[in-house]
Amino acid sequence: MDCSKCGGRAFYARRYSGESLCPRCFDESIVEKTRRTISKHGMIRRGERVGVAVSGGKDSLSLLHVLHRLEARNGGSLVAISVDEGVAGYRDEALKHAAEASVSLGIEHSVVSYKELFGFSLDQALDWKDEEREVSSCSFCGVFRRRAIDLAAERAGVSVVATAHNLDDYIQTFMLNLLHGDVARLGWMDPSYADGGFAVRRVKPFMEIYEEEIALFAYQTGVPFQSVSCPYMHEGLRTEVRDYLNRLEGAHPGIKNVVLGSALDVISRYARAEGKASLRCSECGRQSSSPVCGVCRMKSSIKQHVNYTG
Ligand SMILES: [Zn+2]
Ligand SMILES: [Zn+2]
User: What H or E segment, with its residue span, contains residue 245?
Assistant: First the structure.
């Protein structure tokens, strides 16, 4: 099998496009695709300093590598940002990979912990939360992780943070919002939404790349990454949606690209119609979709409990 681009020896067949690619052309195609996504959605400005959220898994370490390669062309600089949620026996290995990758690429690395920012680790918070089961561990942790990344970005002096969400993550979230009846959240998914007055813009440079291609890129690049998933991971419906989309893709190569196109179309129309107004949290003053933000609501419940038992 010959590479469709250079005629060399292909190792990967991209079913949705019919191309066969050699390692070098595949690698270059991932970097080029990322560059186009960034430019199409105006994610990063020329010469801008960019925070990269690095958990230490394959997606985020690949993102760090790709942005490092694009950095030279863009003339900006990077800072890797990691959040230590405080999960005993799990987080340390991932943080080690994040730190080693940053050192090897010569990128500044900043680590913030839940403990230092909020006063409790995820282990402590979930001890309490087990009694109130209405929120899943992941959505619970996600609320705090987003805030932690904002705070870390402010500390590092960056106004934009890139996260490693890939095409699969993006369309799963789109479908989950529909399945949960959370249509109002669609506006928040607009790739250029974050320009609406937020202190820290969020961008997803991998949002047009299949998860399996990011995994292949990570193996090709040879970076060590953490493959064990979080012990608290419980994704429920997301796993079913992921399996369903993978089955569809198997039978109809390219259908995930079609879903992404439709999602972006719906989201941009919705975001335009809704406008970009949002409230401010009455407790912390940060932007929020409700009068008291999710972080402040969860934090006060946790603190009550921690004080009560401790
Ligand atoms: Zn080639
Ligand atoms: Zn708040």
Answer: helix 237-251
